[in-house]
Amino acid sequence: MTDSVFNLDFEKIAGEKLLQLMGERTPTSIALLDRNYNVHYVNDRLASTLAFSKDEICSKRCFELTGKDRPCPGCMMAKVFESGEKVVSMRRQTRKDGSAVVLEIHDVPVKKNGRVEKVIEFLVDKTRILEYRDRLEQDFLSLIDILAQLLDSKDAYTARHSRCVRDVSLALARKLGMPREEEFRMEVAGMLHDIGKVGVPWDILNKPGRLTDEEFEIIKVHSPRGAEMVARLDRFRDIGPIIRSHHERYDGKGYPDGLKGEDILWEARIISAADAFHAMASRRSYKDARDREYIKAEFLRGSGGQFDPRIAQAMLELLDTEELSDAGGW
Questions:
Q1: How far apart are CA 85 and CA 87, in angstroms?
Q2: Structural domains of the chain, count
Q3: Distance between CA atoms of 277 and 271, rounded to whole angstroms?
Q4: Which helix (H) or strand (E) segment is 302 a member of?
Q5: Which of 14, 109, 202, 293 is the most buried (most CB within 10 A)?
């Protein structure tokens, strides 16, 4: 259904008979409702989508189909009656058999003498599209896991490192109230933050001691290189800047761009903290793994310097629980 149909001026068409004629000749689900939520008409497509008969739907008010005794809070149709403007929303709807569909709903006002008398709903079933998207994202995550394993096999230190940074980053993001719909981006960035290290010589990655200044300059290239690699994939284009900036510091003394404070992407600041956590919690050839109290002291000391103060505080709160025990090896 095109926008031109969604935007029809129904004040100028010849009533419900024309709507019914159009409704039975379109692949889009259609319903006509009044101010009291009574359903005056549904087409065959909508009845099939909801697994109710037309008579069952039209004998009830719309909210009663889902077993409710009153309209849903924030009902989009009510907003149309109030504003006189079209509203588009997404809704999860329970079918008669108990299964669910995800519907994109276009609520269009039907006016008489300038007053909204009824609302026509055009409903597009997005269930399969969303299921396909979810499966695709899981396939992406599986591929990312394989790439991370390849990277981990090159560098003895990064064995488990990518997964640990991902897990700690997600724990921090949730602690800080990141919306769940943004977690996929956080998860991918956490897994791929060091992907640019595939271009760093093995002997530098696994050197059993401190790097020379020249070697450190070579290591520093991995974040912009990783960003460039990821940016080649349209699906991950917005993840590249996170990877580029995960070694920036809140005080502006990081690399590669010397960004400071809020100029550093929020996700990059989170990954920076998770990366530092795992660096301290891991045993290296030249140092033992640090315990929980040592790591807490470092985040206290680095708050406002290396770390965003809010993220440092969230890390301290997580360290007072057992949530990071697996990642810390405690």
A1: 6
A2: 2
A3: 10
A4: helix 292-302
A5: 109
Q: Indicate yes or no: pTM above 0.85.
A: no
Provide the terminal-to-terminal Cα distance of the chain, rounded to the nearest Å. Answer: 57
**pLDDT tens string 184-209:** 889 889 988 998 888 788 888 878 77
Collect all residues with Cβ–Cβ distance below 8 Å to 107 and sequence separation of at least 6.
Answer: 76, 77, 79, 80, 86, 87, 88, 89, 119, 120, 121
CA 173 to each of CA 68, 166, 167, 193, 314: distance values in angstroms, whole numbers, following the listed order: 35, 10, 10, 16, 9
pLDDT at 181 > cutoff 90: no
Put the strands of the sheet holding 39-42 in their side by side order: 39-42, 29-34, 115-125, 100-112, 87-94
Q: Could you count the other beta carbons within 10 Å of the beta carbon of residue 166?
A: 25
Lookup result for tokens 């189909």? 65
Same domain, 194 and 280: yes
The conformation of residue 236, written as its DSSP 8-state character, comes to G
Q: Which amino acid is at 240?
A: G
- Say whether 234 sits in a helix, a strand or coil: helix
The 3-state DSSP class for residue 122 equals strand
pLDDT digit string, tens, across residues 117-128? 888 888 888 887
Cβ proximity of 63 and 70 under 8 Å = yes
- Exposure of 45 by Cβ count < 10 A (0-12 exposed, 13-18 middle, 19+ buried)? middle
Position 291: which residue type? D
- Give the CATH number, domain containing residue 53: 3.30.450.20
Within this chain, do residues 17 and 74 fall inside the same structural domain, yes or no?
yes
Structure tokens at 318: 């997580």
Determine the longest span between alpha carbons in the chain, in angstroms: 83
Of 99 and 147, more confident: 99
Q: Which pLDDT belongs to residue 325?
A: 83
Residue 14 has pLDDT above 70, yes or no: no
